[in-house]
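HOLO CASE FILE
Compound: glycyl-adenosine-5'-phosphate
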Amino acid sequence: MANKDVTDPARMEKIVSLCKRRGFIFQAGEIYGGLNGVWDYGPLGVELKRNLKDFWWRKTVQERDDVLGMDGSILTMEQVLVSSGHVGGFSDPMCDCPLTKQRFRADQIEPFPPGVEYTFKGAINKITNRQTGLGFTVLIPNAHPNKFEAACNFARKFYQGVFGPNSEPHLLEDDGFECTSGPQEGSFYNPENGVKLSEPRQFNLMLQTNFGATGDQIAYLRPETAQSIFVQYKNVLDSSRVKLPFGIAQVGKSFRNEINPRNFTFRSREFEQMEIEYFCHPDDGMRLTDEWLKTRLKFYEEIGIPRDTLHILDVPDGERAFYSKKTYDIEYAFPFGVQELEGVAYRTDYDLGVHEKGAGKSLVYFDEETKEKFLPHVVEPSAGCDRTVLALICQAFDEETLTDDKGKEDVRTVLRFKPSMAPIKLGIFPLLKKNEEQVRISKEIQKKLQPWMNVFYDDAGAVGRRYRRQDEVGTPFCVTVDFDTLGESGDELKNTVTIRHRDSMEQERIAIDALLPWLLERVRG
Ligand code: GAP
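Model generated. Tokens follow.
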């Protein structure tokens, strides 16, 4: 079971650096300074992400008789999100730091150590004689040797922000400040400097856009893929003539104006979700929630995220959404802590209920066998695609110390992806770049395999180094075309290649003709 308290920032730093160096993930707009909380996937990242999404789709839609797919629009009508509660309620309580202008989520602020709280009641700008009565409060920890001076320094910086960069703020004297012991009950402090934050204010997380010829129509970039599924539930039902229980699945982009995007791609402002809304009879909701939890855990095992790296949080009463009767969070032990990958939530008939009311159209289901009419309940397994990609990379990342024949040690960086997830399935190398026949056969193998999978031809440098480059991006197999392939050691090895396994580094010989079925058996997953 994942240990909640273990973090490893050094490991995370290496992973972020490898992601950039080898073309998995880049910050969006990096050459212009970067867009905070938004990421671009490079050539290898896009392959990894595509493998994950294709596998999810296969397991969730194609291999099941009871789940159908859809692809809803990103632009979402305001009325849809008014009914769902997002326009009025999809918000976080936020506090601002008056000094640094940082914004914090009130429910995530770390407590500040006890100390003395100084409240300043204003200052005067010595250059212009302008005076302000704006208050400023800072808490200085008891351990600080010079608390009053530290508080005055913070206050001067704050008033300089008020008067302007060339001002000389002079703090009001005599009755100009108060001190008391802190932290005060119900107050929030900047965890980095002790400055008292503003009262929490609700901050809506949705990204709004305007469109139409005059730009006067409002739409939102969807904050979750789920809503288009609820809104189209009746159309899918009527056009597909499915019966309960059945699910609708969708993979796609969602957008949230996260206040503190962080931990690499973990909390982003633009991200992809893989969601299933599973519609059922009200009597089956609880049982199906448990069943979906098991199904989803099996999925993670299949893509290479073992059960013992996952933690299941049975979200207690009072912490679940008010309409949810049961919610499990599936959490993964990232190097920055144990954090949510997916939620499996029993949402009752809340969603269909609010849309039925909002649109004024019946969404009732009629069971032809029992002649019962009811509003279906919903179980929702909702996974983050980017978070799962990040978990796959974190799980795969390994540094292995190797010792050669002379006792010299070397560290090999390997991404131990399951072959089904690996961005490149096979590296193809001619032993000698100058040997025309070896190059010709290597390129022939490449052309033969390309319609089936992503392979990579490489003839630069020593073979050992080419293996290492493939290890670092997680390629599970590499083949080398050598002199034996050309028949120089006799007919037995002619038209065979050496295949090298990434994890064991063992090598075996395989006929070129047998390569495709050999690989297909291993890379499909
Ligand atoms: N329809 C339910 C829903 O959207 P959620 O817990 O808000 O529930 C579901 O999101 C999943 O989407 C999360 O478990 C997470 O994997 C992913 N997710 C949510 N916000 C995210 C963000 N800012 N960045 C990356 N992934 C996010």
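CASE NOTES: The mean pLDDT is 95. The pocket of glycyl-adenosine-5'-phosphate is lined by residues 224, 226, 256, 258, 267-268, 271, 273, 275, 340-343, 380, 382-384, 386-387 (CB under 6 Å).
CLOSED: yes
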